[in-house]
Amino acid sequence: MVAGLPLFGQALGQAELQEIRGSFVKDEQTAALQNVISHTLDLSKLAIRVNPDKVLDGLFKYEVKALPSAPDQYTSGRCWLFTSLNALRPWAMEKYNVKDFRFSHNFDSFWDLFEKSNLFLEGIIETRAEETDSRIVAHLFKTPVADGAAWNFFINLAEKYGVAPESVMPETVHSNKTANMRTLLNQKLRREGWEIRKMAAAGASEADLRAHKLSVMKDVYRILALCLGEPPTEFTWTYKDRGGKVHSLTTTPQAFYKTIVPADYGFGSMVMIMNDPTRPYYKVYEIDRYRNTFEGRNWVYLNLPNEEMKAGALATLKDGDAVYVSCDWRKGMVKPANSMTCDSYDYDSLFGVAFGMDKEARIATRYSASAHAMLIIACDTDENDHPTKWKFFNSWFDTGEKSTLTFTDEWFDGYLFRMALDRKYLSAKALQALETEPVQLPAWDYMN
Q: Catalytic: which of 156, 186, 372, 379?
């Protein structure tokens, strides 16, 4: 027996290899498939259905008023931020009586990366006595900071730092394309995280470690300010209203945010929801360290069946508001139609093998997870007012139809995960579940 191999394992011997090789019968049809598949890099072009079961049109019974423009996140992971701010744009347009309004994504991006850096360093101080290869230390060092996140990250930022108009802190090449900046920032954080562990091992006090952390945060601020610009603590915004009158407003980002959102907006009125069939519904879960600010709120979600989520989303649309959601958008996406269905592609027929899994299996095997945030802005229903298809507003394109994606109700069931919903749209059973203590999940949970 080879050391390290399981006692009852089985290697592939000549008999098994012969049986497996013999199962591949190269008849004329298989030979033709091999020729085509082996010379086609994008296999989706071969698997796309000629006549899918469902052809989606652009007509919807319920649709919120369209936003005049669609900001583009380019090659950054800031979909959560763009989507959160897109949800606030109609309120800003109404408050200041303007035809269009765009927030500065760069402003909140700066503070997001800044706060995540502090959270990472605090995590290193907290776990300084753990072994380097412990799961939590490995998790921290794997990716000190990333620009991806979720809705609770936005609320943590907005309530602490506020928001600003786009003109106050415009995008830079590094806010639009974050890879180089993040690579350097993470290198710096890993270096200093390692230094903190060395200091702790040599007997440095907690006060000394935090003094070092403060000096590191100054360097983090410098890196971000050089790449993104320095965020203002006060600004003057000049704008023209719908009547053509010019106004000038001098304020702070925190005060500006409060002029736009309702008094109870945020964790007071909104609930973070998940559809995760691998865990019991009507229970609350909290993922450790899934936040950006040290004092902020983790992703604490109420796990609900799809039907509850759909009812809340539809009710929100009927009241004229869009819905923040996140999903596994790549599954079933067809371009240039910008539509998603569960039968868009047929790889089973192309290869002659079964690939399908249900949502529970896709999650448990890490094949599918929440990957991109967008706003739901429309829903079509049948004669009984049951949803048949939905529409997203995206943040990857400029103005025009390319900023929207249409998907079936079946696709909603299979690939939509998260939602931020006003608690007034929840059932009594869901509200009762909210009163229970959250089940604690580790930082490396598959829903992170």
A: 372
